[in-house]
Design goal:
4-stranded antiparallel β-sheet, 9 helices, 8-stranded mixed β-sheet, globular, 12 strands
């Protein structure tokens, strides 16, 4: 999720089934293109270099993926937008098998036409609700996924039914014993929503790491946090590199720091789940 833009209908666009407009426009600040949904950038794609990750939280997801064991991955992506992470996995892990679940057929068609996937990429896009789609995935995937990514937004919010412990149990069932779940969470000052999300995921997968800008992790401003979770110890070789790396240095919380982060936070259930906070309309203006 990025800065808000003025509505643009001069570039390739599609009206979505659930309302709003998706557009593909040249990036203002770097090479490549952005997928903009309801005036808010959702994805950045560089067709000439799919390893070029522009949005901060996507850079952090890529850093975690880089530390998974070498070789092709079996991956499931929920809400992949313009397929930035699937393209990254294809470029860095040739031979990977990937499934994508996208709610909006018009968006998927727009991306396929104007930001085509690499020839021969084993990336299957399935249309439907993310939670319902997980239940319809091939049974052979259950217990065999190296990577599951949940990055679903309706406008600028994650839908409530994709935030509960019941939902995360369904995702955990897809993972291989050492597989990793990555979840993008957006929250603001106080981090009440993010703390509950970390606590909820930790109820299902005990090994946790939280990656974010230091000011975001301290709850001082709105932003994205990446939650990495697994049933097995997470790789830690990337921690020093991520702490020092630019242009988007991140703070990584693990162990006791995560336990302190979630202290007092209640587990989210289907019965009390709510959508993620809506950011102020002017938050991402430049």
């Amino acid at each position: 999720m990025g800065r808000t833009r003025t509505r643009d209908t001069e570039h390739p666009h599609a009206r979505l089934d659930h309302g709003g407009i998706a557009s593909i426009i040249p990036s203002e600040f770097t090479s490549g293109f952005e997928l903009v949904v309801d005036e808010t950038p959702q994805s950045h794609v560089d067709l000439d270099d799919p390893t070029h990750l522009h949005f901060e939280y996507i850079v952090r997801m890529g850093a975690v993926i880089d530390q998974l064991p070498e070789g092709p991955l079996t991956a499931v992506h929920l809400g992949a937008g313009a397929l930035t992470i699937p393209r990254y996995v294809e470029a860095t892990r040739p031979g990977s098998r990937q499934q994508v679940i996208e709610l909006e057929a018009p968006l998927a068609a727009l991306v396929r036409e104007h930001l085509p996937l690499p020839r021969g990429a084993a990336i299957r896009v399935r249309i439907g609700d993310a939670r319902e789609g997980v239940g319809r995935l091939p049974p052979a995937l259950v217990g065999h996924c190296d990577l599951v990514v949940s990055d679903v937004y309706s406008g600028a919010q994650t839908p409530a039914h994709l935030t509960s412990v019941e939902f995360y149990r369904e995702l955990a069932e897809l993972l291989a014993p050492s597989g990793v779940l990555l979840v993008n969470v957006a929250d603001g000052p106080g981090l009440a929503f993010a703390r509950r999300q970390v606590a909820t995921i930790g109820e299902v997968l005990p090994e946790l790491g939280v990656l974010a800008d230091t000011q975001v992790l301290k709850g001082r401003r709105f932003g994205n946090l990446v939650i990495a979770a697994s049933a097995s110890p997470l790789p830690t070789e990337w921690l020093p590199r991520m702490l020092a790396a630019g242009p988007h240095p991140a703070k990584i919380a693990q162990g006791a720091e995560v336990r302190a982060f979630v202290q007092g936070a209640r587990i989210v259930t289907d019965a009390d789940a709510v959508a993620s906070p809506r950011p102020d309309a002017s938050l991402f203006l430049r």
